[in-house]
Amino acid sequence: MSVPISTQISEDVMTSSKKGEHDPAARKFTEEEMATHRIHREACEAKKQMYVDPSSGYKVFTEYAHLQRGKCCGNACRHCPYGQVNVKDPAMKKQFNSLFYV
To answer: Is the entire prediction scored with pTM above 0.90?
Structure first.
């Protein structure tokens, strides 16, 4: 079984944060982004399909749920592991902040 992308990213974020404050690759994340990332990671580790977004209260599909689906649904999901390849409207595509799409 492969390591979930969110786990790989967590390790990358921790590694990049050790690079130093003057390194442009060491992007700082807001408390809200880190909380979302932590909640999502915990939900994936527990093999949950969704979690409640701490800022909006909306239910959000986890990366685990998308991997179970097997392909991009085209809805510009926050944790799409497929790079949002089936999102038809370019204006709907989100930017990846190295933790999730925003």
So the answer is: no
